[in-house]
TrEMBL record, chains A, B:
<feature type="binding site">
    <location>
        <position position="211"/>
    </location>
    <ligand>
        <name>ATP</name>
    </ligand>
</feature>
<feature type="binding site">
    <location>
        <position position="207"/>
    </location>
    <ligand>
        <name>ATP</name>
    </ligand>
</feature>
<keyword id="KW-0418">Kinase</keyword>
<feature type="binding site">
    <location>
        <position position="47"/>
    </location>
    <ligand>
        <name>substrate</name>
    </ligand>
</feature>
<feature type="binding site">
    <location>
        <position position="150"/>
    </location>
    <ligand>
        <name>substrate</name>
    </ligand>
</feature>
<feature type="domain" description="Aspartate/glutamate/uridylate kinase">
    <location>
        <begin position="1"/>
        <end position="216"/>
    </location>
</feature>
<dbReference type="GO" id="GO:0102043">
    <property type="term" value="F:isopentenyl phosphate kinase activity"/>
</dbReference>
<protein>
    <recommendedName>
        <fullName>Isopentenyl phosphate kinase</fullName>
        <ecNumber>2.7.4.26</ecNumber>
    </recommendedName>
</protein>
<feature type="binding site">
    <location>
        <position position="52"/>
    </location>
    <ligand>
        <name>substrate</name>
    </ligand>
</feature>
<dbReference type="GO" id="GO:0005524">
    <property type="term" value="F:ATP binding"/>
</dbReference>
<keyword id="KW-0808">Transferase</keyword>
<feature type="binding site">
    <location>
        <begin position="6"/>
        <end position="10"/>
    </location>
    <ligand>
        <name>ATP</name>
    </ligand>
</feature>
<feature type="binding site">
    <location>
        <position position="48"/>
    </location>
    <ligand>
        <name>ATP</name>
    </ligand>
</feature>
<feature type="site" description="Transition state stabilizer">
    <location>
        <position position="15"/>
    </location>
</feature>
<keyword id="KW-0547">Nucleotide-binding</keyword>
<dbReference type="InterPro" id="IPR001048">
    <property type="entry name" value="Asp/Glu/Uridylate_kinase"/>
</dbReference>
<dbReference type="InterPro" id="IPR024192">
    <property type="entry name" value="Fosfomycin_R_FomA-type"/>
</dbReference>
């Protein structure tokens, strides 16, 4: 039973700094993943303070590209560095994490659609590894190279791997209404549109609105929850908001 | 006109050390590539002292795999480190080099055949980047993860990108006969089999014999030559041995 789990960039990094890991939060997340003993897990993490500042410095977004190899290498290099730290934390706890770098695995077509074959990810999973993907800069036909968000990866992986469950672990406890209460279920975007603003931080990849819209398009049920509920989700629970 | 060029691991590293770049040799190669102004170039480099010792330490070869995530990460990490140095040398000279890591781009099927989609590489090329691939450790169905050699990548890229020319830059001036003279043309393996021994160094990926066999299978003509002839090859010449 394949589970696609995203750790938000704001969970594993100090999002108001640059290139700074949130060590205790990452340790807690890695502990929860190791404790769950989850099989067939595919992980994604966001960019947080490693991805967004570098992308912003070079004016690169999901639609505005760069043709500067040095800009591509700087953004990608920062994300690889974060990915190494995440894989280290997992491997130290016995989780057989291996990197899977989207820059080398896929690209965008001229219309912006993502081409990311998932058979190599599936082979990693089937061989007992836990592939760890991340937001990245990817080549974009007719635009140079643009940003690929962790949320887009979650959608592509859930569809391509026919995942049974999807988890999005963010810094908030779920999708909140205007009273700050977690909305337990979302089945239509229109029902919750009025609650979903943009992200407060430097985020070239869209906030909760884009997340919810993307998750609604999946066949698999998706849970949006906070870091404290990670263990519950991995044990089969549906903490936070269930999007389906 | 796509040119696939491999820089041998023994060209860019000190092959009898561990994790040691041959700085002057790499600088010369990068100078030659920058001076050529070659368009539509796709580069591959071997593992040399970054790949082979780590693979040997974990008993990983093209056929013997590992299921240890830490072994995979060690071998892959060393190759990424070398790849970064190669890309640095190229970018410093104005060549728009970007990494393309085979561990994330492909895998082996259970019968050992390589699955490496080349459309992402082609998009990089078409957007004006110079993708730089490298020997790596890749997931292998039913075997964990095994070594993918630079020579195998050359073959997969030449076929997948419909390359017009292939160059293999090694530390020797071509394929040598038993008198140490460069054989100018090879059209049949049987004609030269008696001259082709194994590689002297720690090399899990096969020596000249495997190289020649693989190049004979290509549609594109392939030149095998030494570092001093790199500029000549990039200018359209056919130094060393022409395999076709």
């Amino acid at each position: 039973m394949t589970v696609v789990l995203k750790l938000g960039g704001s969970v594993v990094t100090e999002k108001d700094a640059t290139d700074t890991v949130d060590g205790p939060a990452l340790a807690d997340a890695a502990d929860a993943i190791a404790a769950s003993g989850a099989d067939d897990l595919v992980l994604v993490h966001g960019g947080g303070s490693f991805g967004h500042p570098h992308a912003a410095a070079h004016d690169v977004s999901r639609t505005d590209g760069t043709r500067e190899a040095t800009a591509v290498r700087e953004i990608h290099g920062a994300m690889r560095e974060l990915n190494d730290v995440v894989c280290d934390a997992l491997c130290e706890r016995g989780v057989p994490a291996v990197p899977h770098h989207p820059h080398s695995a896929g690209h965008r077509n001229a219309d912006g659609t993502l081409s990311l074959p998932t058979d190599t990810v599936a082979t990693k999973r089937d061989e007992g590894f836990v592939p760890v993907l991340h937001g990245d800069v990817v080549t974009h036909a007719d635009a140079g190279a643009t940003i690929l968000s962790g949320d887009e990866l979650v959608v592509a992986l859930a569809a391509g791997l026919d995942a049974e469950r999807v988890g999005v672990c963010s810094t908030v406890d779920g999708v909140l209404d205007d009273a700050g209460t977690v909305i337990p279920d979302i089945e239509n975007y229109a029902d919750v549109e009025r609650y979903l603003g943009g992200s407060d931080d430097t985020d070239v990849t869209g906030g909760m609105a884009a997340k919810v819209r993307a998750l609604l398009g999946l066949r698999a049920p998706a849970s949006v929850f906070g870091p404290d509920a990670l263990g519950d989700f991995l044990d089969g629970g549906t903490p936070g908001t269930l999007v389906r």
